[in-house]
Amino acid sequence: MSINLYIVRHGETYINKYDRVQGWTNAPLTPKGINDSEQAGKRLANLVFNNVYSSDLARAVETANIILTHNDSTAELQTLPDFREVFFGYFDGISNDVAASAIAKDRKLPAGITFNEISDTMSPFTLMDAIHDVDPTGDAESAATFWQRLMHGFTTIAKENNDGDNVLLIAHGQLLSILGQQFAQLTASQSEPKNGAVNLWQLTDNHLELKVFNDLTTFW
């Protein structure tokens, strides 16, 4: 069985605009974010989706509903918590620099190193565990916890769809970056998706194969 899985990153939020860590914290779409979603909807307007899913976080749901205004598919939006962004616990909603400083101190990295620079030197799973380790509340997700729920989400989609189906999923930046690094051997910098970008994956019973990544131009 092979499913055509179109994964779109939600439109820009105000937390994205201010370069802060955004996991489970809800923030409204900016005017640009609304346009990101509108443009994604127009590029996907000619596809008929057998099922449509999104993370249950507000920015993903809002993006999905905007996309669907441009689409004639009759499938109703289903929200799946399994596709939430990574939960950053104490660091959720605050500056990337704060998280970078805490990780650098714990892992004895150079002072002043940026979050993006840390991402380039660590695997996504090591980075998740580093955030988990320095979270003073202990709420940030470990890599194992995140991966387990994410794979459960893909299992759900596989069970609910048939061979050759077109499926739409609205998800999140770090989640998509992790998929790119894990299944397509992209680097951290290569796997950073733009808001509103379309990513096409082939989903089988036990594997994801990347076909198109970070597309902002194609009309499907």
From TrEMBL:
The keyword Hydrolase applies. InterPro entries: His_Pase_superF_clade-1, His_PPase_superfam, Phosphoglycerate_Mutase. It comes from the Bacteria. One of its GO terms (molecular function) is fructose-2,6-bisphosphate 2-phosphatase activity. Substrate binds at residues 9-16, 59. CDD domains: HP_PGM_like. It holds the Pfam family His_Phos_1. Keywords: Hydrolase. GO terms for biological process: negative regulation of glycolytic process; regulation of pentose-phosphate shunt. PANTHER family: FRUCTOSE-2,6-BISPHOSPHATASE TIGAR. This is Histidine phosphatase family protein.
